[in-house]
Design goal:
This protein is α/β, with parallel strands linked by helices. Helix content is about 25%, strand content about 25%. Pathway: Cofactor biosynthesis; riboflavin biosynthesis; 5-amino-6-(D-ribitylamino)uracil from GTP: step 3/4; Cofactor biosynthesis; riboflavin biosynthesis; 5-amino-6-(D-ribitylamino)uracil from GTP: step 2/4.
């Protein structure tokens, strides 16, 4: 299932408006088909994997990160129907689909056809579908906040000089993260003083540059969407994954509004001293409130810099 989740990441974010789904078909201990959601959302992962598997799909097991769709579309057939017609023996799903057109109906159709269905949720699946599931549950995009810091927590020198805190490997990794986002957001001060391009500058991925969003009360520059408050991200149509790059004011406002789902920190082995702090007030009244909010999700070394990602832990309502 985790391998299917990794496949799904290849479709992000180009699968929009559909979620990026991965599918692996296994028979006799051998992978006979694999697929991920195509650009613009069709064909679906299951359709691609089944086409690759051909006749070997009969009697096989399909691992799919999201419940196969049950609704017919002008753009293609329902994946639950395709799996039935292909004669698979078992379907293992990583997550149930919250879309009311499918929710439970895809599984029901498979079982009615005599196909065994199992549910195997994993953290990798949850991460691969985070944007889609967050949209469905909370009515807003999944938000990643990125911070590039010195060892002493500064994002710039006292005079605002910030290029560059981190080295080339870390900056390339940031561009790969941009390429997996539907939109990228900065605050008005960052836009005015840094004049960021907010694009993807990795060879072969330039066409994956996300839409640009500005948090400000000013007038929208050409080609840039403006929102006046973090809560307005719900109005960003077609955005499942929002990447917030700062600066300190925008970062603090998103944290204060509790709208950050993933925190990504690039820490350089430098000490600045009297510099610009990464964050301002985020609304915590006591130290106790700061504990229990974040769990380590990933860490790695990027050249001389360290990358750490944390997921927001929220109590179920």
């Amino acid at each position: 299932m985790d391998a299917a989740a990794r496949l799904a990441s290849r479709g992000r974010p180009c699968s929009r408006p559909n979620p990026a789904v991965g599918c692996i078909i296994v028979k006799g201990g051998r992978v006979v088909g694999r697929g991920w959601t195509a650009t613009t959302g069709r064909p679906h992962a299951e359709a691609i994997a089944l086409e690759q598997a051909g006749d070997e799909a009969r009697g096989a097991t399909a691992y799919v990160t999201l419940e196969p769709c049950a609704h017919q579309s002008e753009r293609g057939p329902a994946c639950s129907t395709l799996l039935v017609e292909a004669g698979v023996a078992k379907v293992v799903i990583g997550a149930q689909d919250p879309d009311p057109r499918t929710a439970g109906s895809g599984v029901e159709r498979l079982r009615e056809a005599g196909i065994e269905v199992a549910h195997l949720p994993t953290p990798a699946v949850d991460q691969s579908l985070a944007g889609y599931l967050t949209r469905a549950a909370l009515g807003r995009p999944h938000v990643t906040l990125k911070l590039a810091l010195s060892l002493d927590g500064c994002i710039a020198m006292a005079d605002g000089e910030s290029q560059w805190i981190t080295d080339e490997e870390a900056r390339a990794h940031v561009h790969s993260r941009r390429a997996m986002s539907d939109a990228i957001l900065v605050g008005g001060a960052t836009w005015r003083y840094d004049k960021p391009r907010l694009d993807v500058r990795l060879e072969g991925l330039e066409d994956r540059s996300p839409a640009r969003v500005l948090l400000t009360r000013g007038i929208a520059p050409d080609g840039v969407k403006v929102i006046n408050a973090p809560q307005q991200i719900a109005q960003l149509d077609g955005v499942q994954y929002l990447y917030v790059e700062g600066g300190a004011g925008a970062a603090a406002s998103f944290l204060a509004a509790d709208l950050v789902d993933r925190l990504e920190i690039y820490r350089a082995p430098i000490v600045i001293g009297k510099g610009m702090p990464a964050l301002g007030d985020i609304g915590l009244a006591s130290l106790a409130e700061a504990h229990g909010r974040w769990a380590l999700a990933e860490t790695r070394q990027l050249g001389s810099d360290t990358f750490s990602a944390y997921r927001r832990t929220r109590q179920e309502a």
